[in-house]
Amino acid sequence: MTLHPLDQPFVLAGTTYQSRLLVGTGKYRDMAETRDAIEASGAEIVTVAVRRTNIGQNPDEPNLLDVISPDRYTILPNTAGCHTAEEAVRTCRLARELLDGHNLVKLEILADDKTLFPDVVQTLKAARTLVDEGFDVMVYTSDDPIIARELEAIGCVAVMPLAGLIGSGLGICNPYNLKIILEEARIPVLVDAGVGTASDATIAMEMGCAAVLMNSAIAHAQQPVLMAQAMRHAVLAGRQAYLAGRMPKRLYATASSPMQGLI
Fold first, then answer.
1. What letter would DSSP give residue 3?
2. Which of 27, 106, 114, 179 is catalytic?
3. Separation CA 89–CA 143 (nearest Å)
4. pLDDT per position in the chain (263 positions), as tens?
C-alpha cells in the first residue's frame, strides 16, 4: 500500500507497519477460520493471549504459530486473564522466552471477570517493571486521560484506551475522554475493546486514532472472514477521512451549487 502524501507512517517500537488494523486470535471456531479471517483483515500485528493460547509452551497441543507464522506477522503477546502486576510480568517474561527475545507486548490487567475493566493501579505497577526490563509495552487502559498521560511518562510505546467493555460491541462510549487523550498523547493511541462493527472502527480512525485493535467484532460476526474484510476497509476509510478533514456541521442547509448567475 502506497502511503498518501498527507499521511505519516504508522510506527510502533521503531517498526513501520502498513496496516492500522490489529486483530486478535481468540473466539474463532477453529484455527482454519482464525487463519482465514486474519489474512482477510490485512493485519500485520496479531495479538495472542499467552495464558489461553498455545504458542509452544504445550508441545503436545496444536500450536497457533503453525497457522499464524511469525515470519509473516508480528506476534503481539498479551496478558489477558491476568489480575495482578506479578501475573502480567511473569506472562510477558514467558512470552519473550517462547518468542526468542521478542520485546513487544500488550499489557492487560483486569479488575474483575464481570466487566473486564482494566485495573489501572496494577497496570501502572506492571508497566514500570516491564519498561525497566526492556519491554516495548502497549497498554490496555481506561479512557482516563490522566492515566494515559502517566503511562506515556513511564515509557509505554502506545496507549490503548477502551472504547467500550471488552466483547460488548457498544462502540465508542465516551468520545470526549478519547478526544482529550488524542490531543495530549505523543505516542500512538489505539482504540482497544468495544468495537462492534465497521462504523465503530471508522469513527475511531476519523477521530485521529493511530490504529484499532479488535477480536470479538470479527470472531463473533456471522461471517467472520467477510467482517474482517469490512474492518480492513473501515480502518482505511476512517484514516483517509481524518486526513481529508470533514466539512463543518451547519444548522441550516447550504446549496451545493453557486447561487449567483441563476438563469
1. P
2. 106
3. 23
4. 567 777 889 999 999 999 999 999 989 999 999 999 999 999 999 999 988 887 777 787 788 888 888 899 999 999 999 999 999 999 999 999 988 888 999 999 999 999 999 999 999 999 999 999 999 999 999 999 999 999 999 999 999 999 999 999 999 999 999 999 999 999 999 999 999 999 999 999 999 999 999 999 999 999 999 999 999 999 999 999 999 999 999 999 887 766 666 66
- Cell, residue 141: 487502559
Q: Given strand 21-24, what is the order of strands in its sheet?
A: 158-161, 136-141, 104-107, 74-78, 45-49, 21-24, 211-214, 190-192
Evaluate whether 11 touches 45 at the Cβ level (below 8 Å): no
* 106 labelled catalytic: yes
Rg over alpha carbons for the chain, rounded to the nearest Å, is 19
